[in-house]
Every structure is written in structure tokens, then in C-alpha cells.
Amino acid sequence: METQSKKQNRPIIMAVAITGLMAITNPSKESYLEHLTWQLKDSACQQQQLSCTTLKNVPPGVSAAMLSSYTRRQNFLLFSIYTTDFYGVQDQTIGLGGFFL
User: Fold this and answer.
1) Boundaries of every domain in the chain
2) Which of 37, 39, 40, 55 has the fewest CB neighbours in a 10 Å radius?
3) CA 62 to CA 46: how far, in whole Å?
4) CB distance 51 to 61 below 8 Å
5) Could you tell me the superkingdom of the organism this chain comes from (predicted)?
6) What are phi and psi of 50, to 5 degrees?
7) What predicted TM-score, i.e. pTM, was given to this entire model?
8) 9 CB-side CA count, 13 A
9) Helix, strand, coil content of the chain in percent (nearest 5)
């Protein structure tokens, strides 16, 4: 009897463990800003824009601080939605499990 009840509780325990792991690994706004900074640099350089040279010379911390005031985070505990509107350039990203989608 006891073993059957333990088997029945496994899915619940697994669901709680996965939910806890997702909540713990929900990326912070600082992590997103670092990700966005590198993404913008890569994008500008791939498109061979003149701003590529300028962006490469700006330290990541400065870029992140500048983008912070243009970024909004909606925290849903298990994941977050980040929206950045920077001078007409909009980016919306989902942060989930330590990654950005």
C-alpha cells in the first residue's frame, strides 16, 4: 500500500521540483540587459552598420545601464517577459530557465 501511494506522489513531487527549478533560474533584468547588449553589438556588426565600431568600444556595463531605463520586465515567477523600446527599436524576449528565447 505504501509503495503505491509513493508512486502516486511522484508526479506531484516532480512537478513541484520542476516549478521550483524554473523559479530559481528565472533570469534577472541584469542578465537580460547583458544579453541584449551583446545581441545589439552582434546585430549591428553583422549588418555592417557604422555604429558597429562605436558599439564595440562601449563597455557592456555602460550599454546595459543606458538600456535599463528603456526596458520593462514582467515577472511571472517561472519566466519573465522583457520589453525594450529604445528609440524606435523594439525587442521583446522571454527569459526562461536561465535562457532567453
Assistant:
1) 2-100
2) 39
3) 22
4) no
5) Bacteria
6) -65, -30
7) 0.77
8) 7
9) 55, 25, 20
